[in-house]
Amino acid sequence: MVKIFFLILFLFSSLHAQDLLIKKIQNLVSPKTFAKDRAFIETIFSPKSEFYNSNGAVDSIKVIKTLKENGILNLFFQKPRDINISFKTNGEALFFIKIMSDALQNIGYYKYVTKESSLDGEEFVWKINLTSEYAADPIILSQELKKNGCQISDVVRENESDWSYVVDMKNAKLDVSTLEGGVTFSLKRSLYAYWLDVSNVESVDITSSLRNDWYPYIAFYDKSLKLLSVIKLDTKKTEITIDINSDVRYIKISDIYTLKNIKDDLVLLPRERKY
User: Which of 30, 110, 219, 259 has the smallest C-beta neighbourhood within 10 Å, fewest atoms?
Assistant: First the structure.
């Protein structure tokens, strides 16, 4: 009797799991496409067990990758249209927006508008709107987020052009260069502020050439990108030494007026942290 009970329970769980996969596929493709390609879908998603994570949830990214590779999921439109994308996470809001903004920029989305941002307990939601000829590719976005230690745990297609993402930030970090003690590092001329991981150093000597008109702006952040302190000097500098407290993970180096003031490299000499 007990064996029969567990057999029934196993069969029910197996059918329920398969049902979740089918529901995910139906969410990602149109009803017309699903009906037309149903037999093919059954073939390419066999065995179904390969499309689940270790925690038993459907692996949305793997499902999308399979649909794309087999020509079932089309992300392109006939003409540019409005796209709404919603991102949900349990991480720090500002840290998340920084990571997502960098990832979107890296995949070609520079112009978007924040429609809404909300924090409910630990859950943060960020909604953006943009105009494009194609929907954001979840596979490419996932690859970018992995560089920051983030994982897309679920993807929902709300309609043809609107998507929702759930992002796991448990191991989040900025995808930036890490300074090492005794290793000289040069910051090339840029139109954007320089971000660096300074968790391994206790101080940094920064040298600026005479051709530069550098008026230092240096911000210090913790591992969750909480702003700890800022150095702002309204005096042209060719040399400056900054101390890195143990709670500082990242620094942002800029100019209080414009980065156009920096014509030559800024040269950094970090000093190793002594534990």
Answer: 110
